[in-house]
Amino acid sequence: MRTRLLALACAGLVLATATAPAALAVTGASRSQAVTIDDRGSIVSADRLARLSAGQVAAYLTKSKFPVPAKPQGADLYAVVYRTLAVDGTPTTASGIVALPARSRKDLWTVSYEHGTLATKADAGSVSDGDGRAAPLMFAAAGFAGVAPDYLGLGKGPGFHPYMDAATEVSASADLLRAAKELAGRKGRTLSGDVLVTGFSQGGQASMALGKWLRDDSEFRLRAVAPIAGPFDVRHAEMPALLGGRLDPHSATYYLAYWTVSMNRLHHLYDSPSEVFRKPGVEKLFDGRHSFDEIVAGLPASPRKLVTAAYLERISHPSGAVLKAMEASDGTCSGWRPGVPVRLFAGRADRDVAVANSRHCLRDLRASGVEASLTYVGNVDHTTSAFRSLPRVLDWFTGLRRTP
Q1: Looking at the 3D structure of the chain, how many domains does it have?
Q2: CA angle at residue 150 from 149 to 152, to 5 degrees?
Q3: Which of 60, 94, 173, 327 is 20 to 30 Å from the Cα of 125, by its Cα?
Q4: CA angle, 324 as apex, 272 and 258 as ends, to 5°?
Q5: Tell me, what CATH number does 286's domain have?
Q6: Are 76 and 187 a contacting pair, CB within 8 Å?
Q7: Is 212 left (phi over 0), alpha (psi -120 to 50) or beta?
């Protein structure tokens, strides 16, 4: 039971397969192809995973514990491979989900859903059932075009996932918006360019990063952002809670290990894994091929058993490469221009992502003059905060679309 609960928290609401399991199975793999920077967002492949009636969508969402829109539509669900940029700015490919509604066809608003922490390629929405499929279907059933990026290195994307790297979360997400526009045109739909953004856990942070970028973009019109339980402030909120024992030790160990391995690939935190990890083999657990259960089995029970005293000191008082790595995660809530509303959601009993993250984000947004609010959805844990927040996000986004 403990492992399952942690899986739900860490793996972004991994859900049981609902109705029409055969229809939701991936129909074929796609090869990565050479890309150019000028081709960003263009489609490499688009495989239809399912064509669901309104009744099938409603049944699927109900079983998945996602809200069912009033008068739901049927939807087509696609796994898309598209061109984007790697961490170093060179061309690569990424994958994601696009869901298009059956009845609504013209001037569709788009909702981008950013998923929570995943360390296994095969758990991402383009190749596996979960919130990466349920969320886009939920929004498609409400008449939106729903998209959900896998991010770099997950799903059908090559290489490693740069976990919590805001810049590539933005580039992979923005390029999927472009791919969705191309796919919609192929299927006789048109997208208006109006974009709403939401996400859970890592996806909360990713949705803030994407929203901040879209706010200043001329290609899309950002309408609202609704992050759920995001780690917006690793340096001043998440790490202090982790070091102070205020987070669940199993979850904290998983997140710290993943973040450290990922950031070392980007910012060179150490020369040898023994400089930071007490146990050998931690790096290999985050190669994208190990399952969640295999990763958990290979990790100790607490952060202090995971890393050395010297590394604990470094993350307690960050400087140099560690500070640079934290800054690559943080800053998504500061420096916004006013004009787009932001509603944050969090659970008061969250022991995976400290609620101080959302408080700090609210403070920074308001300091920039943004119309922002923070809704506490109860004295609930990390996963429950998502299930309680999503109906509110759906209602808010639907109301915004109807507003003249």
Answers
A1: 2
A2: 105
A3: 327
A4: 55
A5: 1.10.260.160
A6: yes
A7: alpha
